[in-house]
Design goal:
elongated, 2 domains, mainly alpha
């Protein structure tokens, strides 16, 4: 049987014939490149953003991690709540700090930097309010020493947060990578958000 006869008896399926068409094949290749480049770039950018945000939990260049410093702040807040609960005049402020501390603990269950920051801001405010209230009261010698200890522990943790280098790492990445072409184009088109600062 000749090739022509075989072709007549077993015609090439329509889809297979299209693939043998050079223009069609070139179009498919072009479409794959046009779609593949942005999708691949978006995936790479998303991984890079995740690497930056991971430093919130692991630390930047050998420095401590903000997430760990916040655990110290949570411990100090619990200590101050314990002292505050002894004094009726400080019950309102104690309740506020207890609640805000629980919000920070809830935020610590997730990986959202913005939620950490918002909850920590509440704790900073209510910790300060309870500390000031306690200092306005007549405390026992032991309670006064405890307030001073927990205040130092809390302020030390918050100071370490501000020097952890995480926000600087986010700013550097955003300026040098995220906001520059082609990342800036792909990020907007494909919904890749910049890493979150802790503020």
């Amino acid at each position: 049987m000749s090739a022509a006869q075989a072709k007549a008896t077993h015609p090439i399926p329509e889809g297979a014939a299209l693939l043998k068409n050079r223009r069609f094949a070139a179009g498919i290749l072009a479409a794959a490149v046009i779609l593949g480049v942005p999708l691949g770039s978006a995936r790479s950018l998303r991984h890079a953003v995740n690497r930056v945000e991971k430093q919130f939990f692991t630390g930047v260049e050998g420095r401590g991690a903000i997430a760990d410093y916040l655990k110290d702040a949570v411990d100090a807040a619990l200590g101050l709540v314990t002292v505050g609960a002894k004094y009726d005049a400080a019950l309102e402020e104690t309740g506020e700090l207890r609640f805000d501390r629980s919000c920070l603990l809830d935020a610590m269950e997730g990986k959202n930097v913005a939620e950490y920051a918002a909850a920590n801001a509440l704790v900073v405010k209510s910790f300060g309010a309870l500390k000031d209230k306690l200092w306005s009261l007549e405390l026992s010698e032991q309670d006064a020493a405890d307030v001073e200890y927990y205040a130092n522990q809390f302020e030390g943790a918050q100071g370490a947060v501000s020097h952890a280098g995480y926000n600087e790492a986010v700013e550097e990445f955003t300026e040098k990578t995220y906001d520059r072409f082609p990342a800036s184009l792909f990020a907007g088109l494909l919904g890749v958000e910049a890493p979150e600062k802790f503020e």
